[in-house]
């Protein structure tokens, strides 16, 4: 029984088998939803982790970028993107490509984690077949 706003999490392998319940009830996936193989999911998660690690990595160029921002009163950011923003753009492009190639054909939709405060990976099950 959930307490407050806590949600019971169901492991991915149980969701793919239609459990709990197992009788095709409310917890089973829609008919147009194909099983997502673990390799595709792991590839997506590993690539996202790599992009975010790159965004957080300190280097000489990011240090100089910060110093230049301080010297210009952060007005430099009117003209240029930060290293972090460039990496977030790469993440958005990767998510879009993965949705087109892997998730949408299986009746799923991966939401960009930057829209969720970088706190979670949201995968939505689509009710209608892709058109």
TrEMBL record:
It comes from the Eukaryota. GO terms for biological process: protein targeting to membrane. GO terms for cellular component: endoplasmic reticulum membrane; palmitoyltransferase complex. It is a peripheral membrane protein. Keywords: Endoplasmic reticulum, Membrane. Residues 35-122 form the Golgin subfamily A member 7/ERF4 domain. It is found in: Endoplasmic reticulum membrane. PANTHER family: GOLGI AUTOANTIGEN, GOLGIN SUBFAMILY A, 7 (PTHR13254), GOLGIN SUBFAMILY A MEMBER 7_ERF4 DOMAIN-CONTAINING PROTEIN (PTHR13254:SF0). Belongs to the ERF4 family. Interacts with ERF2. This is Ras modification protein ERF4.
């Amino acid at each position: 029984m959930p307490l407050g706003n806590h949600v019971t999490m169901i492991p991915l392998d149980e969701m793919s088998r239609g459990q709990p319940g197992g009788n095709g009830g409310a917890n089973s996936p829609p008919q147009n939803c194909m099983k997502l193989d673990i390799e595709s999911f792991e590839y997506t998660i590993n690539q996202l982790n790599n992009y975010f690690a790159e965004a957080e990595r300190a280097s000489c160029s990011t240090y100089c970028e910060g110093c230049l921002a301080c010297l210009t009163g952060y007005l430099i950011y009117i003209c240029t993107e930060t290293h972090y923003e460039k990496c977030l753009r790469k993440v958005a492009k990767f998510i879009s490509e993965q949705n087109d190639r892997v998730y949408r054909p299986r009746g799923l939709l991966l939401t960009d984690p930057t829209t969720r405060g970088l706190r979670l990976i949201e995968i939505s099950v689509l009710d209608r077949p892709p058109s």
